[in-house]
Fold this protein.
Amino acid sequence: MRVYRIDKESGKWKKFCPQCGRQTEEFIGSICPECFLRTIVLIDPKAIRVNLKLCKSCGTYFWGGEKTSIEDAVINTVKRELRRRYGDIRCDVEVIAIEEKRARVRIKAELKGVIAEQTGEIRLDIKTGSCDRCSRIAGGYYVAIVQVRAQNRLPTDNELKSASEIAQSVLEEPEFIAKQRILKQGLDIYVSSMKYGRKLSWAIVKQLGGSFTESRKLYGRKDGRNIYRFSFSVRLPGFQEGAKARIDGREISVVRVAKGRGIEYVDLNTGEHEFLKMQDTKKLQAISFY
Ligand SMILES: [Zn+2]
Ligand SMILES: [Zn+2]
């Protein structure tokens, strides 16, 4: 709609804004830019609400299933709402302050060549609960077990400590360690995924030597798909004949490995032969494995 009136001074037909009655040559739609600017509502506390989830276990905020900060959630919510309302709008959103249930924001937007700026408050709707990762941890969920053992001997306490530290160092969210169990023959590390189990096994072997094998077992079915549990069997290197090690401050050389029973060695200081039972092999600190 266009409104034309006779201009009294010039006697010519001129265009007028039907909203404010001012004469103008510039129109956005059917109204002048000033009136158009007044129709832009950047902050409507009733329309914009930031829905956040807060995990009370790990303190992480989630927005639409994604990890986020409150600031980012506010910015994304505002931008999404403005695009929904105005289509092609360019906007800058600045979070000035965050209070318990409100965020104070300054929004600068450009729409059809008109620049609008508003400052105001937006409601934060924060629901607390437990995130997927934390509820899985709490529920004892795991997908893979990394079993750290040694070939024809028991791993030393240091080796198990290292394996445990490696598990932490290669850990990346959302993966997690469900639990760790120290056994007579080694260490079992229960982890959140097959990928993390494999990565961890590689890292242990790379740092401590040896090798690993993997296997899977059908655990159940979910949504028509087979669910597997994975086992990674890590074997730290065993001693070969002639290998050197330290035990109780003495230096020894391995003479013979009695599979499953222990190790025969010679004390390099006294030349005496001795037999070390399997359960005591964890005390052997390797100097060389062969
Ligand atoms: Zn107007
Ligand atoms: Zn959590």
Q: What stands out?
A: Residues 71 and 89 are 20 Å apart (CA to CA). The chain has four domains: 1-39, 42-139, 140-236, 244-288. The longest strand covers residues 114-129.
